[in-house]
Amino acid sequence: MAESTEMDYKSLPKIELHAHLNGSLSTSCLTELYHMKYPNTDDPPSHINGYKILDKFVELKDCFERFKYAHDLTDTPKRLKRATEIIINECHDDGVVYLEIRTTPRATEHMTKEVYLSTICEAIIECHEKEPKNPIVKLIPSFDRSKGVNDARDTLDVVLKVREKFPGMIVGIDLSGNPENTNFQDFKPLLQEARNAGLKLTLHCAETAGTEEENMEMLEFGMDRMGHGTFMDESPDTWLTLREKKIPVECCITSNLKCATVPDITKHHIQKLLH
Ligand SMILES: CNc1ncnc2c1ncn2[C@@H]1O[C@H](COP(=O)(O)O)[C@@H](O)[C@H]1O
């Protein structure tokens, strides 16, 4: 009988470079966190069924709504730590050998932004101590555009402080969040400051149609990697500049195959990049 030539894709070593922490929680992880937060309750309501995008096509703003229930469940150091551990373990099971987790430091009723970031760093270290075969994990704090520039200012101060406590852990800054009604210009000085401090930059860009001017401004400002770049090919100039500058584009298919965050638009985007 002929030997099976089927490839074991799971065990192939992989790198995962675009994992938003609160966007990478599998359904079983969300369920566990739900029971930690709401003990003695029935199973979570059906909306905790992962990030499954049930509609054929969702608008960008709908995606951001979906993070609210993850944010509700990762609002204490204990649950945030558990969420981090689960992501790392699930990535390990998926054959990931190098993982960059990105996340927006969030102050909640139960923790400051500094505690938020430190908790994740501690979880990363503990995971490695418990299981040295776990992936190498680095952290990329995010500026959420929708929260404005003052929030990002505050975040950068915290990031630089936490970086001192956990040397080698924080490798860059991500610009993400809903770009609607925000202006890239406002974030430039802070991003430059981060760059001067030795942090790499990954910027979500061209997330919606009709932002050619801003896309070019971002390309001219420069970045080490681009998040999504979904509508980048709308103008030949920006498309060419992207290619000339050889900026790697991160396609957010899903950080974890257990989450179903693959909207049609991402598939379309991948096809464009491949051609
Ligand atoms: C089209 N896709 C996207 N575009 C832009 N930003 C996105 C995103 N998907 C996720 N985020 C950003 O990541 C946060 C959730 O993870 P963290 O709380 O940071 O761990 C979202 O609230 C959003 O700010």
UniProtKB/TrEMBL annotation:
Transmembrane segments: none annotated. GO terms for biological process: adenosine catabolic process; inosine biosynthetic process; nucleotide metabolic process. Keywords: Hydrolase, Metal-binding, Nucleotide metabolism, Zinc. Signal peptide: none annotated. Its cofactor is Zn(2+). Residues 13-274 form the Adenosine deaminase domain. It catalyses: N(6)-methyl-AMP + H2O + H(+) = IMP + methylamine. GO terms for molecular function: adenosine deaminase activity; metal ion binding. InterPro entries: A_deaminase_dom, Ado/ade_deaminase, Metal_Hydrolase. Pfam families: A_deaminase (PF00962). Belongs to the metallo-dependent hydrolases superfamily. Adenosine and AMP deaminases family. This is Adenosine deaminase domain-containing protein. The lineage of its organism: Eukaryota, Metazoa, Ecdysozoa, Arthropoda, Hexapoda.
